[in-house]
Amino acid sequence: MKTGKLILYFTLTCLLQVLIFNEFLFSGFLNPYVYILFLILLPPSLSRSSILLISFAMGLVIDIFENSAGVHAASCTAFAYLRPVLLNVLLKKNQDETRESLNLGEVGFIFIAIYCLLSVLIHHFFLFAIEAFSFEHLSTLLTRTVHSSLFSFLFILLYLLWNLRKRPTL
Amino acid sequence: MRIILLILKRARIFLLFLILEIIAFSLILNQRSFQRATFLSATNTVSGQINQQFNNLSSYLNLKVENENLVRENVRLRNLLDQSRVFQSYGADTIQDSVHQIRYTTVSARVISGTYAKYNNYLTLDKGRKSGIKPNMGVAGPNGVVGIVTNVSQNFASVLPIINPGITISGKFQKSGYFGPLSWDGNSHQEAFVEDIPRYAEIKEGDTIISDSRSRVFPEGLMIGVVAGKTLQTDQNFYRIKVKLSTDFTRLENVYIIKDKLKYELDSLSSAP
Questions:
Q1: Which residue of A has its CA nearest to B188?
Q2: Cα-atom radius of gyration of chain A, to the nearest Å?
Q3: Mean pLDDT of chain B, nearest integer
Q4: Which residue in chain B has the smallest CA separation from A63?
Q5: A81-91 pLDDT per residue, tens
Q6: Does the distance separating the beta carbons of A70 and B27 come in below 8 Å?
Q7: What are the respective helix, strand and coil percentages of chain A, to the nearest 5?
Q8: pLDDT tens for each residue of A156-166
Q9: CB atoms within 10 A of CB B118
């Protein structure tokens, strides 16, 4: 993927999250964080350090608009660090690290869906844990994580299904 | 030396990760220990402007409800006017009353962005230092207490609402006069809790809880909410009262910032040894 395209998608994702998805709120505490899809679908051929930096920057932008200091930046960076591990476990092949992109047609829809769900769960868990800054109310934390994750995943699934035919990359 | 370089090279991803996390956490800690990390706050001009533009658009959708709320408040205020009272003359001379001068004045403001579904909720208002807003001023909405101003820039102010665990105000039972600290537990944006109400106090569901001048931010008598339930605290001597908040944070738009003319005097008195 070209740098220009990357920057375009970065801006687009930020705007979508800040102006549209932050306005979605169901039953009081379900806020979908769909911007994570951008980080999930970053091409694995990018170097790990640039993935870390892009994730951190994305988190920081969301933080500025959400007024939450570094909560999103921290959780995005944590997710970006764990991402190659997750990909390795799921793909069980090292050569996939050099892939140009996560093509739906190549790796299969089920794989992408499971990968997205796990990524969203990891990211949301970090997000809510750092936001609450304690494990005191672990049950509240876990219910929030699961509910919000499923909600975000719903939107991500819609996006994936929408693009099922075209076999796109990002 | 070479070994160190080799280690550094192998661990550079981890080191980068560590550095980024340290930056993020220092921002978070900064926000928690001081009131706000200034360059990342919603009072920042760029994000403030964008939020305001978007808010201009979305406020049209809520016009009807907002109008109803404002009309209701107008009616309530009109009832307080001198016109709606009967003046009785007792035959006394006019007295220059220097005791009952106006103590509280208000500035109206609009909420341009805000959260209510998080653990640490914040609001941003469209009035700032130019309108004479200072930190620690109280904020009230048409339905009652909203929060306290924490940070101010030229044109915007950020507010810590009562649905933030970092804030405690004093709440008082209108009927019986008992008072206690009101705080939020981090769950529903409709409920808060008043603690340390003695067991022998007669508290019924539906009793009104109002603001108390003990918190030194709000004038006495602003609505906070109604009692929705009570449980005994672990020490068995005090009640923990569940309060249904009267302010609906999900559609809060017009608010008032309360200026207290005597605040400085009061603070300087109580900070004296």
A1: A28
A2: 15
A3: 80
A4: B40
A5: 998 888 888 77
A6: yes
A7: 75, 0, 25
A8: 888 888 876 65
A9: 21
How many interface pairs between A and B have CB atoms less than 8 angstroms apart?
Answer: 98
CB–CB of B189 and A77 under 8 A? no
Domain boundaries, chain B: 169-247
Is B22 part of the contact surface with chain A (CB cutoff 8 Å)? Answer: no
Overall fold of domain A3-162? Arp2/3 complex 21 kDa subunit ARPC3 (1.10.1760)
Tokens at A72, concatenated: 């999103």
What residue spans define the domains of chain A? 3-162
Name the CATH superfamily, with its identifier, for domain B169-247. Answer: Rod shape-determining protein MreC, domain 2 (2.40.10.350)
Q: What residues contact residue B149 under an 8 Å CB cut-off, 6+ apart?
A: B125, B133, B134, B135, B136, B137, B138, B139, B157, B158, B159, B160, B257
- Å between B104 CA and nearest CA of chain A: 30
Query: Is A64 in contact with B158 (Cβ distance < 8 A)?
Result: no
Residue in A closest to B14 by C-alpha: A81
Query: Structure tokens of B257?
Result: 């910032």
Q: Which residues of B232-249 are buried (b: 16+ CB within 10 A; e: fewer)?
A: eeeeeebbbbbbbbbbbb
